Amino acid sequence: MPDDPAPFGFVIFNNEGSGAGPIEFGGGRGHNRYRNKATLEAYVFVPAQSGLPAALDLAETVASRLRSFRDDTVSCFSADVIPIGAGSSIAPPGLDSDVSNFVAALAEVRVTFDQIG
Q: What CA–CA distances, in Å, run from 51 to 73, 78, 79, 84, 100?
């Protein structure tokens, strides 16, 4: 972590697959439509002196842009903002000790997307 902390974030995209198989048959291999589930986790870190509300605000900015998004291919069903830190059971992947110069929040977004395959 830098000595002079600045806000940053990282995103993890977890593709959970199509599950039950094709939702639409199009005439053979490469023409069937699959509906896949995925979870997008956007971790937002801000300097500790900015406070947890600043981290929650940035995570809400991410979540609000995706919440209830729908088009012909992608559908978002939920976008939740979750605080991370003392008293929370959530820890960013790869960090196994407390980080004292940052506070964090998570925007957890659940989507489905269609794919031809």
A: 37, 25, 22, 12, 12
DSSP string spanning 13-80?
EEEEE-SS-EEE--SSTT--EEEEEEEEEEEEEEEGGG-HHHHHHHHHHHHHHHTT-B-SSEEEEEEE
Q: Are 85 and 97 in contact (CB under 8 A)?
A: no
Per-run averaged pLDDT (10 residues), the chain, 117 residues: 75 78 61 80 87 90 86 84 68 52 85 75
Hey, what amino acid is at 98? D
The 8-class DSSP code of residue 4 comes to S
